[in-house]
Specification:
Length: about 400
């Protein structure tokens, strides 16, 4: 949660510590903690070590200590943010979520590369369900503790997302948006999965809103990208539970069955950014990094801002329309053409007749730089060609 240090040629004045191993390694080289941000680390067996250093200027966020250590640190000039034990999540979490963590039983954790062999817990017993229930009832009315916990959590998730994407070229991150109601087994679901796979195999990082439907399909395709012949078998496994409504446990079990067949440790890297605001729509299990937020407005802004390589819009309703015009606003007011990200709408009849976003988007583009970056195509193959630069501007 610390601000990043960009001057890598000199000693860092800000140091983020997110594991006990990192804490021990850095402590062995210094007796001054100024500029340290220690995030959600269990330090209950490091009381003696902390007693021998100067803690002035250090920040400890949600850490655990032996009795008496907190007072010594405060007296020495450290700033301590307390743990908030009354909430079912870590407001200072140092990393993105994984599907195994969200859907495992409350009180358990799972490493990012853990192979899940027994499927998820019943959804009602999962960490995700506990957090969603808290957001709907336990955080009502929204007192200061609940508001603070949500805000700290979302800030920590943004920081974790920064860390997780630091090595990515932002112009190679492509968003895929679309409706949550699309069912497994639908030809459009396969098409979305093929799009995700094609984007991933071309060296792009797929990013979605993390929900079911078209979003799940795109994450699935990217997830399976290291296995060229896996998609047919995976779709057959998923077809046993085509939708989540009323059968979320079966829906999740089918997804984890695919993860068991093709383990996450070997999967294609891809990201999702879901929200508990729409917690009744379960987060899909194919994002290898999951940045899940409480605040949907922050989530939407984060989602669209990260897709500098362009966004593909598959058929969807009000949520997808919102994402179209939120991205269009950034492109419309861009002061430099390099700030304009491609927008590709898939399904000419859908976007000109069913939900006619395209005519307005085309009109807004006009003679602006945005006009050269918006496209409406018929197929996902054409959408990929636009992003590859192998197709000129396309119009319905």
């Amino acid at each position: 949660m610390a601000p990043p240090c960009h001057n890598r040629g000199v000693t860092r004045r800000v140091l983020e510590i997110e594991t006990l191993a990192d804490f021990d390694a850095h402590l062995a080289r210094t007796d001054r903690l100024k500029g340290w941000f220690v995030q959600s680390v269990d330090l209950r067996e490091r009381g003696d070590a902390l007693g021998g250093v100067d803690p002035h200027g250090a920040v400890f966020l949600g850490c655990r200590f032996d009795p008496g250590v907190e007072d010594r640190l405060r007296d020495g000039g450290a700033l301590l943010f307390p743990r908030l034990p009354a909430v079912p999540f870590d407001p200072y979490r140092p990393s993105l979520y994984t599907a195994a963590e969200l859907y495992g039983p409350v009180g358990t954790t799972a490493a990012a590369g853990r192979r899940v062999t027994s499927g998820p817990a019943p959804y009602a017993e999962s960490r995700d369900a506990a957090i969603y229930a808290w957001s709907r009832t336990g955080a009502r009315p929204p007192g200061l503790n609940a508001t603070l916990a949500r805000t700290l959590h979302d800030h920590a998730v943004t920081d974790a997302l920064d860390d997780a994407t630091r090595d990515l070229d932002p112009t190679r991150v492509v968003g895929v948006m679309g409706g949550h109601a699309l069912r497994r087994g639908d030809p459009a679901y396969r098409a979305a999965a093929e799009l995700g796979r094609r984007l991933a195999t071309s060296g792009r990082t797929v990013l979605t809103g993390g929900g079911p439907g078209a979003m799940e399909a795109a994450n699935l395709g990217a997830y399976l990208s290291p296995w060229p012949d896996a998609l047919d078998e995976a779709l057959t496994l998923l077809a046993a539970a085509p939708g989540y409504a009323g059968t979320v446990d079966r829906w999740l079990a089918a997804g984890f069955g695919v993860r068991e067949r093709w383990p996450v440790a070997e999967a294609g890297r891809n990201l999702s950014i879901p929200t508990w605001f729409y917690g009744h729509e379960p987060t899909n299990v194919f994002g290898t990094g999951i940045a899940k937020y409480f605040a949907n407005a922050l989530r939407e802004d984060t989602l669209l801002h990260r897709c500098r390589g362009g966004i593909v819009y598959l058929p969807g309703e009000v949520g997808t329309e919102q994402e179209i015009f939120q991205a269009a606003t950034e492109n419309f007011y861009a002061t430099d053409e390099s700030q304009v990200a491609p927008m590709v709408l898939v399904g000419a009849n859908y976007w000109t007749q069913t939900y006619p976003a395209w005519p307005l988007l085309e009109r807004l583009g006009g003679r602006r730089a945005m006009g050269r970056a918006v496209h409406c195509v018929e197929t996902v193959a054409e959408a990929a060609a636009v992003l590859d630069g192998t197709a000129g501007p396309l119009r319905p």
